[in-house]
Amino acid sequence: MAHWTFFEQKLKGMESPPNRVSKCSADAAKQLNDLMGTYYLKQTWSSDLLGFKADWLDEWTRTNALTKLSKIASQIGGPEEPQLFNTIDFDDDEYLENHWKISRVVNEENIGQLGKPINKKVWQGISAQDANANYVPSLNRIVVPAAILQPPFFDLQADPAQNFGGVGMVIGHELISARQYNGPCFETLRSMN
């Protein structure tokens, strides 16, 4: 309760703690990010967004920009291989048991990955339904979820200037983060000093 009093009431101004249903729903959503993201993508995502091109760039400028950006990996939209928990039978009335089942599967998968190369297709710390973007320094990767590629930030029907202003600011911010994280420690964006 002290955590809620300080963070939620004092810092965020909430008047009362969330009820049990809201708290359990939020916790379940956090644990089932990829599963929820799969449903979100089915409702909102179009692969047409990936084909969007800046036709005002000349070929030399486009090639130069793409060469510089080629050192930075990107994930756009949602996970290629979402974790769907197909092996779990969920019980609508057993929140805690469901929580333990998910934790067990995640722990077993993590232990199974020991000594193996990192699966670079896994989204870390952000999901398709998050209206945010981030930069992952350890993987030199920018992640742009589907939720931020929606109006008012981006719309295939909008004027290109609006799209560059909206999403360009977000992606530019992440590129600056990449430079800040990598600048002093890396000779190139993939080889550490």
Automatic annotation (TrEMBL):
Query: Which molecular function GO terms apply here?
Result: metalloendopeptidase activity
- Origin, by domain of life? Eukaryota
Choose any GO biological process term that the UniProt entry carries and state it.
Answer: protein processing
Looking up Pfam families in the UniProt record yields: Peptidase_M13
One GO CC annotation, please? plasma membrane
Q: Which InterPro entries does this one have? A: MetalloPept_cat_dom_sf, Peptidase_M13, Peptidase_M13_C, Peptidase_M13_dom_2
Q: In the record, which residues are listed under signal peptide? A: none
- Segments forming domain Peptidase M13 C-terminal: 132-177
Instruction: Give the similarity note.
Output: Belongs to the peptidase M13 family.
Q: What protein name applies here? A: Peptidase M13 C-terminal domain-containing protein
- List the source organism: Aphanomyces euteiches
